[in-house]
Amino acid sequence: MKQKDIVITGKLSLDAEDLIREYFAIKRVKKIEGFLTSETAFIHKYQGTYGYREMRNIDFHAVYQIEKCDKCLKPYKVSINDRAHLYRYLQSTYKLCLGCKGFHYGIGQNFSMKFDGDIAS
Fold first, then answer.
1. Which among 31, 34, 50, 64 has most CB atoms closer than 10 A?
2. What is the pLDDT of residue 90?
3. Any idea of the CA torsion for 30, 34, 38, 39, to the nearest 10 degrees?
4. What CA–CA distance (Å, rounded) separates 18 from 60?
């Protein structure tokens, strides 16, 4: 799972854009990605600033490339809204692409073909 892009919807000040990029900033150590700052350290550092207030009122997300879908084994991209969403995604049992997830929640459940475990959303 690799971070590919950060998407910001709407107009922001340069300070707020920099904060969003810092919020999702990662470092790689031997192919393992991690955030540069923790969630609490980031909040304590910027909580009272104008850029932080502006950041909290705009739509933004990070795009991650997943190596393979657990069903069809094809790579796919997923939008992650914030760090909590990323942690839930990483902890899920199955990570499915949009096509396989649609099948699972549509036709698959009608025929009782369910996965045993959490499916990433």
1. 64
2. 85
3. 180
4. 12
Distance CA 15, CA 4 (A): 22
Stated pTM of the model: 0.78
**pLDDT exceeds cutoff 90 at 74:** yes
Q: How far is CA 52 from CA 9, 31, 35, 60, in A?
A: 16, 30, 18, 13
State the DSSP code for 108: I
| Structure confidence at residue 115 (pLDDT) | 61
Instruction: Name the E strands within 10-111.
Output: 26-29, 32-35, 59-66, 76-80
**Helix or strand or coil: residue 91?**
helix
Q: What ranges do the domains of the chain cover?
A: 2-110
CB 97 within 8 A of CB 89: no
Place of tokens 């914030």: 82
pLDDT band at 111 (very low <50, low <70, confident <90, very high): low
CB 109 within 8 A of CB 101: no
